[in-house]
């Protein structure tokens, strides 16, 4: 009998890596995807299986975390052994602009899934993974952060995720659901959404290199993050659900770098050496060789409340799950730059052939 998994957020960065990982492990994978006016399955198109063929193991279902009856029906139909709740409005800055929707999807969405498990009598069968986040730590209470560090969320996103963290713990204690939180620190990849800072930087750097873009506008360069690779992190999600007892785990690399350091390293990957000049809003990143300004600050990218430093201690995951990250910070930056450089070269070709190319500053 194949194990059956439901992955919400399957069209996102982590959903794509996790679906592939589970298929390789022999699972039957069901993914929840939202209806959209454009195709939104780019990240998982390579996993597509024709439903008319035999031995299909990958299915997509239309759904939304704000729609209880839809979730109940899908869970009832597929009777999953494991649910990975990765769906979320996952952009911290956007959550300040859409706080109510963020709470609905990121907080109540989790409750809807847990309630579906409970009311359909699946508590003994269905294990539940909640995509919790280092954003829960928010305003720094302790460095490094462990499973025991106090939470202090600093955005509507993080507050919604705080609810999800605790409702998962509560359903574990109240109803014996095998519910677990992976408290994952930032993880990136070439599949990262273009408006998160790492991908925004690697895209811009490669486009600047090829003359497709003049400069990049960023917000807070001082913010420090513990950045790992998404493929390593989805393995941790799976390991968390394979343990004898449900528990919560920090997943992190144990290294932290500033946004400024990320920018410098990404530029150096394409042979450009950046020097910094000026302070705060006036700070600029200048090409040492040509004197051109390549990085400027735009206050619109600052957040009303910021998370200054994240640095995780994944000792518990190391000891109990046998998990450790494989990809280093340098390798991650290099890999993201390489993939974006290939994309930028394609765009350059299109431009030369007369197609329009967009510049992204978001
Ligand atoms: P993405 O933003 O790349 O993906 C989010 C996914 O959720 C997409 O598939 C999106 O669909 C879907 N989604 C959004 N809203 C809804 C909704 N209302 N109903 C159903 N689906 C919805 O995020 P990541 O893959 O980076 O992250 C996965 C999860 O892990 C998220 O919950 C995130 O908050 C959390 N997390 C991420 C970390 C990271 O560093 N990446 C760190 C810690 C936690 P669509 O494609 O249609 O937009
Ligand atoms: P984060 O990721 O908020 O940590 O949330 P993001 O990449 O958006 O920001 C990281 C840091 O960079 C600073 N920053 C900018 N950020 C963006 N997006 N754009 C900019 O131009 C810019 N300039 C500076 C930010 O202020 C911040 O300090 C991610 C998401 O994946 C969450 O879903 C997840 O929970 C956490 O990581 C862990």
UniProtKB/TrEMBL annotation:
<feature type="domain" description="NAD(P)-binding">
    <location>
        <begin position="6"/>
        <end position="336"/>
    </location>
</feature>
<keyword id="KW-0521">NADP</keyword>
<dbReference type="InterPro" id="IPR016040">
    <property type="entry name" value="NAD(P)-bd_dom"/>
</dbReference>
<dbReference type="GO" id="GO:0008446">
    <property type="term" value="F:GDP-mannose 4,6-dehydratase activity"/>
</dbReference>
<dbReference type="InterPro" id="IPR006368">
    <property type="entry name" value="GDP_Man_deHydtase"/>
</dbReference>
<dbReference type="GO" id="GO:0070401">
    <property type="term" value="F:NADP+ binding"/>
</dbReference>
<dbReference type="Pfam" id="PF16363">
    <property type="entry name" value="GDP_Man_Dehyd"/>
</dbReference>
<dbReference type="GO" id="GO:0042351">
    <property type="term" value="P:'de novo' GDP-L-fucose biosynthetic process"/>
</dbReference>
<keyword id="KW-0456">Lyase</keyword>
<protein>
    <recommendedName>
        <fullName>GDP-mannose 4,6-dehydratase</fullName>
        <ecNumber>4.2.1.47</ecNumber>
    </recommendedName>
</protein>
<comment type="function">
    <text>Catalyzes the conversion of GDP-D-mannose to GDP-4-dehydro-6-deoxy-D-mannose.</text>
</comment>
<dbReference type="InterPro" id="IPR036291">
    <property type="entry name" value="NAD(P)-bd_dom_sf"/>
</dbReference>
<comment type="similarity">
    <text>Belongs to the NAD(P)-dependent epimerase/dehydratase family. GDP-mannose 4,6-dehydratase subfamily.</text>
</comment>
